[in-house]
Amino acid sequence: MTDEVIKHSVHTLVFRSLKRSHDMFLSNQGLLPPIDDKAEAILRSIKTRDGYGQVMSAVQKAQAVKQQQESMSRPETPHNTEIAESAAIPSDGAMLPYSGPAPPPSTAIAPLPRKAPVMPRPKWHAPWKLCRVISGHLGWVRCVAVEPGNEWFATGAADRVIKVWDLASGKLKVSLTGHVSTVRGLEVSPRHPYLFSCGEDRQVKCWDLEYNKVIRHYHGHLSAVYSLALHPTIDVLVSAGRDGTARVWDSLCTLTNHKKSVRALALHPTLYTFASASPDNIKQWKCPEGKFIQNLSGHNAIVNCMAVNPEGVLVSGGDNGTMYFWDWRTGYNFQRLQSAVQPGSMDSEAGIFAMTFDMSGSRLITTEADKTIKIYKEDDTASEETHPINWRPEILKRRKF
């Protein structure tokens, strides 16, 4: 009996409490608190002072000068003023604004029509075609370097062998063995008969091409060495590898415009510009401040390598075997090629790992995943009539701008 009375009393109290809370808060549910006009005015004045405090005085002075000029230019004739006032007051007594006398038509200045921006017309380049396929490596061909005298070039591959080829005939001249893993980088010295090589075996070697022997080893990398670079005038060799080190460099600025990893760089041989490639697009930059010039979009692949010749032809090679040819100045894509794999290879072995032009810029050498080296050259029979530029500036402008 007692338990039932207490239970009923507690239930009643809880119900009454809920009813009071419901009556108190339901009417204001979802409503914003009232705005304090004084606080809002103070907040607005503080924001105005912080954001426009330096120019507020100049704006006030300009408004005062403008009002003074308007008052001086407006003719003050009592007769016209009385007529305007009498015309501005209608019969029902409502006040209408008076805009003042209109300026004479001779003083009105008509705006000149702006000329639409004109995109520069790209330079015509002859199409490129495959002229020779060189076989001899037993693994992926990962790097290539051309001799400064333009007589031979060297390639390194996953078969751990460096091969030297005659550029004119494509015949093998010599094979160099010494690396115990994939050869990833090659450089030919322009001042000495030396060939530098690096590989995934953490070794950097210097080869004397007169005796075809290793004369020097460079130790220090803790992991695979991926690339080499030689200074053009002094005896300085730079190597970079998987351990994240490239010690001989002087950083002027860091360019962070790419959203994905940068896999290739190409310096123009005559202009102070260079290009960088990533899976999203290719970007052009100006040296030495690193100013962005333009995007070269359309190569929808992972760009592994690039090369540019003095004629302004930029070539990009992708992991799917595609090659895009660009006009350097305008960024116009004038040709697309699909590398043909060697008979007996899978289609997945169409990737292009490295490319370079010879010293004349007339031959393009590519090294690919199908274990071959391909040499391309311009089509001598092509002309602007047979291969015209597909120039549609309105479409390109809509796409790029």
Record keyword descriptors for this entry.
32% strand, alpha+beta, WD40_rpt, WD40_repeat_dom_sf, WD repeat, 401 residues, repeat, Prp46/PLRG1-like, Methylamine Dehydrogenase, Chain H, single chain
Structure description:
With 401 residues, the chain is α+β, with helices and mostly antiparallel strands. It has a domain of 262 residues: YVTN repeat-like/Quinoprotein amine dehydrogenase (Methylamine Dehydrogenase, Chain H, 7 Propeller). Helices cover 20% and strands 32% of the residues. It has four helices and 22 strands. A four-stranded antiparallel beta sheet has the order 1-22-21-20, with no helix packed on it. The protein is elongated. The protein starts with a helix and ends with a helix. The C terminus is likely disordered.
Q: What's the story with the biggest beta sheet?
A: 4 strands, antiparallel
CATH architecture of the domain at 128-247 and 259-400: 7 Propeller
CATH superfamily of the domain at 128-247 and 259-400: YVTN repeat-like/Quinoprotein amine dehydrogenase
Mean pLDDT: 81
For the biggest β-sheet, the strand order reads: 1-22-21-20
Radius of gyration: 38 Å
Structural class: alpha+beta
Spans where pLDDT lies below 50 across 5 or more residues: 81-96, 396-401
The CATH class label of the domain at 128-247 and 259-400 is Mainly Beta
Tally of individual helices:
4
Query: Globular, elongated, flat, extended or rod-shaped: what is the shape?
Result: elongated
Number of beta-strand segments: 22
How big a fraction of the residues is strand? 25-35%
Helix and strand element order: HHHEEEEEEEEEEEEEEEEEEEEEEH
Helix content: 10-25%
- Examine the coordinates and then state which fold CATH places here, giving the name of the CATH topology of the domain at 128-247 and 259-400: Methylamine Dehydrogenase, Chain H
**What gap, in angstroms, lies between the N and C termini?**
86 Å
WD repeats: 134-175, 176-217, 218-250, 296-336
GO cellular component, one term: precatalytic spliceosome
Family: Belongs to the WD repeat PRL1/PRL2 family.
Keywords: Repeat, WD repeat
